[in-house]
Prior knowledge:
Blueprint: H1 2-19, E1 25-29, E2 34-38, E3 47-48, H2 56-68, E4 75-79, H3 82-90, E5 93-105, E6 119-123, H4 127-141, H5 147-154, E7 159-166, E8 169-179, E9 181-189, H6 198-212, E10 217-222, H7 225-231, E11 234-244
Parallel strand pairs: 9-10
Antiparallel strand pairs: 1-2, 2-3, 4-11, 5-10, 5-11, 6-7, 7-8, 8-9
Helix pairs in contact: 2-3, 4-5
Amino acid sequence: MENNLKLCKHGFNIYCEMLAAPTGFWIEHGENYSYVTGKVTSPTMVIFNVTVQENHHKFAGNLAQLIESGKVSNHYELVKDDVLFEALKEKGFTIYQNDSMMIMDITDYTSDISQDDKISVSAVRNLDSLKHWVKINHAYWGYLYSEEQWAEIHALENVTMYLAYCDGIPVSSLLTITDGSACIELLHTLDEQRKKGLATAMIKRALSDLKSKGITKVTVQTGAVELFKRIGFSVVCEKYVARYNTRS
């Protein structure tokens, strides 16, 4: 279980590192944390790679100052840590449960390729398909990056983007990131196209591709727990958000 938790945290860390890839963004390192920052205010400014083993109150105070300075967004994602939770609450943070961290061993994975004839899945290979991917992504996640910046992320060797099509129309998207293990991120299907098996087909295609690359463990942070359980993922832990109540 401890190793699975490390892999889940690693998945989140490599996702954050990916967020720092486009022009205008970079990673800053604190005493026991890192964060993505940039030239302009952006919701992608996230805190990650946190290693707080002692002096939780000092960390909570430093984090509050970092948020007050406007360098990062006013929330921090973390797994359950009662001591740290108390320290954060004392500094003005509100803590609530968010997604679940899940993992799957794909060593013996065999994809069930049967699906609706109307559904097809492909990796994003050109600018036209990337435009569709970005449009779907923006529909749910908001404007994280420009199309040009997403193109920089798409060009990373360890990132693969996928589109699922219904009747030839792109309506669902996700990406995978590899670094020893792999993670699935930014899964979304347009509202009017849900409950048709598109996300399932796309995840299965991604898992098959990852297995062909020699990947054995895949993680995901998601609220779609039942969907991923049906595919073979299991919950490792719950993820929480500590949101700082900035002073007016």
